Amino acid sequence: MIVPMNLYSLVQRKGYLSPEMAIGWKIGMYVEECFDDFSDVGVAAVSDNDTTMALAHLIQRRGYLGQIVVPQSARPWDYHFYHLITGTQLSFTLIWKRIELPQEIRELESELCEHNYEELERYQASLDFLVRTILCEPVTSFSFIRQSRCRRLQIHNEEGHLIHCHYCGSLIPLDKAWDVEGDICCMSCAGLEPVWGICH
Ligand SMILES: [Zn+2]
Fold it and tell me: How far apart are CA 94 and CA 56, in angstroms?
């Protein structure tokens, strides 16, 4: 299997190549193409797994810190990228049935051992096929991508008026609300993490 150079350096370091690592690399390459590079891009992930590790690796290989926020509470995406200057957001939601091993192969997992060579080979072939498919197919084959623009409401709010967030319903001061494609919402529902320095 031909593994892209930047991903290969991670494979060498970790000693394996998982489908999740391939997903992280593909998503990272897609985002880099959209935003030109990773400067001024905030990154968040729902969990700290191989995908997140591969994403961080790619970003670091490009010369950036590769810090990825893993929020404590639920989010409506798996991976989220926010361009701090333009307010452009890219959200990725993975399509699980496209990135999982087939059921009959997953069932082999509990019995895999070096003595069970045939099943081990079957499992490895299926895993290789999945990784290869992820690497060769476009990101949209295994992920829904949503692009949106996000901007702070430019409102003077001396009276301290409050508004309900469109998504979570929490009450927020009007001047602290965000507009995401016409939906007025709170900072976290807008996909913004407090650790990102928001410039607009
Ligand atoms: Zn909210």
Answer: 18
